[in-house]
Design goal:
single chain; 2 domains; 327 residues; 5-stranded mixed beta sheet; Dna Ligase, domain 1
Length: 327
């Protein structure tokens, strides 16, 4: 009778990835989370990510998606692409009495030599995890400015610049981690994108580890693409094997910082965008129980045809965009 009191519309989540752009807006209709509007567009092959042409393409693509969709309001939560974000894990420096300013300086001192860009150009966010560990997320100021300019041009109001690891934990906890047993379970979330696999290890909404690996669906499906110099050039093996090796390295590193905290489950958050057989092969080689998690199937969609999507054949991965909207 009073379900209308719970109605809520969330901001528009904008997932600007290396290879595609996705907008999604969720709401709560009193019965659960529902999809209000969504839209996606792939980057043209002749547009280089991060270039001036890319920025102009993103502006026009967002304008078109907003105009053709049924989005409500102008507030957005956006994220910087994983390829443009530096992530590291460190032990908490200082003592419990260290004030915020000194802690910021201590953290900066520990990671400045690791940054792939000039330290004075960095914008840094740190997230306390567990056991005195900290997750460091950094990007260049000019990248932030480039993205802010996009939203200014399309007359959207930035509520916040989110980060993709938090967006993935939002999607996991909102749709697939709501049981009592899930609250304490440590899980590894895998989001397989076109040219990368984003990895998060978390305990419910507590982030414990994050990393982006430059092997994605295109490589796993046998397509040759550039940008995989992360791997040793002598490694000419199967991309699935390379990805499993990298995931194993992530698991070992996590284990070294979070002792006696085993990963209990793999959650594939890519929905139908990832090949199911490849996912099961990865899970089998890692020897971790796995779950296929389709965010689109987890939300209520009153009129999918109005939204221009077919649940049964949707090859778009909505995990990050949905998680940003829920921020």
């Amino acid at each position: 009778m009073f379900s209308f009191l719970k109605n809520r519309t969330y901001p528009i989540g904008v997932d600007v990835g290396r290879d595609s752009l996705k907008l999604a807006q969720l709401g709560n209709n009193g019965r659960g989370i529902n999809l209000i509007a969504s839209g996606s567009e792939n980057r043209p092959a002749d547009v280089n990510p991060g270039s001036g042409d890319w920025q102009r393409w993103a502006i026009e693509a967002i304008r078109k998606l907003i105009a053709n969709g049924k989005f409500s309001g102008r507030n957005v939560v956006a994220a910087i692409p994983a390829s443009e974000v530096f992530i590291d894990q460190i032990k908490m420096p200082g003592t419990p009495k260290t004030n915020d300013c000194k802690l910021d300086d201590a953290i900066f001192s520990k990671i400045k030599q690791k940054l792939p860009f000039e330290p004075e150009d960095a914008m840094i966010k740190y997230i306390p995890t567990e056991r005195d560990n900290i997750l460091i997320i950094a990007t260049e100021r000019k990248i932030i400015d480039r993205h802010l300019a996009i939203y200014e041009k399309v007359n959207l109001a930035i509520k916040s610049i989110g980060v993709w690891p938090v967006a993935l934990t939002n999607s996991y906890t909102s749709f697939f981690g709501r049981r009592k047993a899930d609250i304490e379970a440590i899980v590894m979330l895998l989001e397989i994108e076109a040219n990368c696999t984003n990895v998060v290890i978390c305990r419910a909404k507590t982030l414990l580890f994050a990393r982006s690996i430059p092997v994605g669906a295109k490589q796993l499906n046998g397509e040759k693409t550039v940008g995989t110099a992360f791997f040793n050039k002598s490694q000419d093996g199967d991309p699935t094997t390379r990805l499993v090796l990298e995931l194993t390295a992530c698991r070992r590193y996590f284990g070294s910082m979070h002792k006696e905290a085993p990963i209990e489950r793999l959650i594939f958050l890519s929905g139908q965008a990832a090949d199911r057989d490849v996912c099961w092969t990865i899970a089998k080689q890692l020897e971790i129980p796995a779950q296929m998690a389709d965010c689109l199937a987890a939300v209520e969609t009153e009129d999918p045809y109005r939204l221009g999507m077919d649940r049964r054949g949707c090859r778009v991965n909505w995990a990050t965009a949905f998680g940003l909207s829920l921020s």
